[in-house]
Amino acid sequence: xxxxxxxxxxxxxxxxxxxxxxxxxxxxxxxxxxxxxxxxxxxxxxxxxxxxxxxxxxxxxxxxxxxxxxxxxxxxxxxxxxxxxxxxxxxxxxxxxxxxxxxxxxxxxxxxxxxxxxxxxxxxxxxxxxxxxxxxxxxxxxxxxxxxxxxxxxxxxxxxxxxxxxxxxxxxxxxxxxxxxxxxxxxxxxxxxxxxxxxxxxxxxxxxxxxxxxxxxxxxxxxx
Length: 224
Prior knowledge:
The chain is of the alpha/beta class. 21% of the residues lie in helices and 35% in strands. The strands form four sheets. Strands 1, 2, 3, 4, 6 and 11 form a six-stranded mixed sheet that branches. The chain has a five-stranded mixed sheet with strand order 14-13-12-15-16, with helices on both faces. Strand 12 (144-151) and strand 13 (154-161) form a beta hairpin.
């Protein structure tokens, strides 16, 4: 998600730590212990967005969505624990509802949610990473929109052409090479040519990972 203005913060929370975007500044992954020492987390911001990496997510067309059966609909797609809290949010630009659980974020996401506040003292938004990937499609001007994140052994991938959403999925990928396999599998499925396409990542990439993608894609971009 593109962050504008110097008084906004976007946090991505994984099992092992978090990264943060403040205005145009972006960190790599920080350990959970940095919650207590990171100066940026002691301030208040006009805008606060927290993204939790979780595969427990699905999209339901608005015409088929019912709040009363949201948990049942999600459980038909992913395995839920009894302790998982299921939430939902409308994505009117897609004519759908996102149904999800961010319980996988554990205590770290709860700490950040309660610690990093807006200027008026209210808490920020906390959604799954897929929500922000879908929202970021509007920031990609390309016709072929390929937006991804990789963390905690999962590739999160959203693909669209123009205003048509083709795919929103999470793939279990133990390493980045496996993540690349799923990216190119999806490219082949939808007959998208990587040589004329850019791929956009919301998560920090190592130099090696970025160069590997550059071997195939026209460009590798970062969404701040």
